């Protein structure tokens, strides 16, 4: 079995994410640096770089690796078990800044839904700081990370989709419909003309069900998702109580579709994240 199709553990996923972060900041990383940073063996560091190279995320060189440009198509491909892992690295700083703003909607004791979007992943540390939080999700990948952070998780069943590492379909839709949710955090791979789209109709059922039973509905959507299209519409921007995006998103993509009090635009930087709108 190739590295690309081997299921990765949450520990590996987090280590790979941090490796890409190092590359984004420095442009190059050495085996020795990875060994010191993560407390792993040189062999494990080489294996990590092999996996990331196969995914097109870097290029191995003697003694380490250098940054490699990643096309949007490869990052957002949904045709392999590694796709959730791949997508977690796309627009990483934007997702973290968006999550920091979205976390202000959280309160102790909440029951929240998080879908299988990788934009939800940076929310986990904020959830773990609050007591009495219950997280409902259809994502197996996210469930593993949530459990590692000591959170109470309700896992939604349904038809398993390896491409998303999540349960979807009618069974998932019906299960969510029997719940009451204080807040719903979801994302979308495509926004165009004020509409949110998804390439998988069974995933659309899950998102619609969650939005229907959520008191507050928060969309986490970085600039790379705008002007894209996919076959199935599941919501309008106006259906959300709050849309959080970053400053690289053109205003014309959201201003005509939302009142000012339902859009939050965050500034993304290495040193500081601030809410600017």
From TrEMBL:
Pfam families reported for this sequence: DeoRC, HTH_DeoR
Keyword Acyltransferase (UniProt): no
Gene3D superfamilies linked to this entry: Winged helix-like DNA-binding domain superfamily/Winged helix DNA-binding domain
Boundaries of every HTH deoR-type domain copy: 12-67
UniProt-listed InterPro entries: Carb_Metab_HTH_regulators, DeoR-like_C, DeoR_HTH, NagB/RpiA_transferase-like, WH-like_DNA-bd_sf, WH_DNA-bd_sf
GO-annotated molecular function: DNA-binding transcription factor activity
Keywords: Transcription, Transcription regulation
Protein's UniProt name: DeoR family transcriptional regulator
Protein species of origin: Thermopolyspora flexuosa
């Amino acid at each position: 079995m190739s590295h690309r199709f081997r299921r990765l553990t949450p520990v590996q996923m987090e280590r790979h994410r941090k490796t890409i972060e190092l590359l984004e900041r420095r442009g190059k990383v050495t085996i020795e640096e990875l060994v010191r940073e993560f407390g792993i063996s040189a062999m494990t560091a080489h294996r990590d770089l092999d996996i990331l190279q196969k995914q097109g995320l870097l290029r191995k060189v003697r003694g380490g690796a250098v940054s490699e440009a990643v096309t949007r198509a490869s990052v957002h491909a949904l045709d392999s078990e590694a796709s959730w892992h791949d997508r977690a690295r796309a627009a990483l700083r934007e997702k973290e800044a968006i999550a920091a703003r979205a976390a202000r909607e959280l309160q102790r004791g909440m029951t929240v839904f998080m879908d299988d979007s990788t934009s939800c992943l940076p929310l986990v540390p904020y959830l773990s700081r609050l007591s009495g939080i219950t997280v409902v999700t259809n994502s197996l990948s996210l469930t593993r990370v949530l459990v590692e952070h000591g959170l109470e998780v309700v896992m939604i069943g349904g038809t398993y989709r390896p491409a998303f590492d999540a349960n979807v379909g009618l069974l998932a839709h019906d299960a969510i419909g029997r719940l009451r949710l204080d807040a719903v955090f979801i994302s979308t791979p495509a926004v165009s003309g004020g509409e949110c789209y998804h390439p998988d109709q069974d995933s659309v059922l899950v998102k619609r069900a969650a939005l229907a039973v959520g008191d507050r509905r928060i969309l986490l959507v970085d600039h790379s998702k705008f002007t894209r299209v996919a076959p199935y519409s599941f919501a309008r921007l106006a259906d959300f109580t709050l849309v959080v995006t970053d400053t690289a998103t053109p205003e014309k993509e959201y201003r005509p579709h939302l009142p000012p009090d339902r859009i939050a635009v965050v500034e993304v930087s290495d040193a500081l994240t601030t809410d600017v709108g």
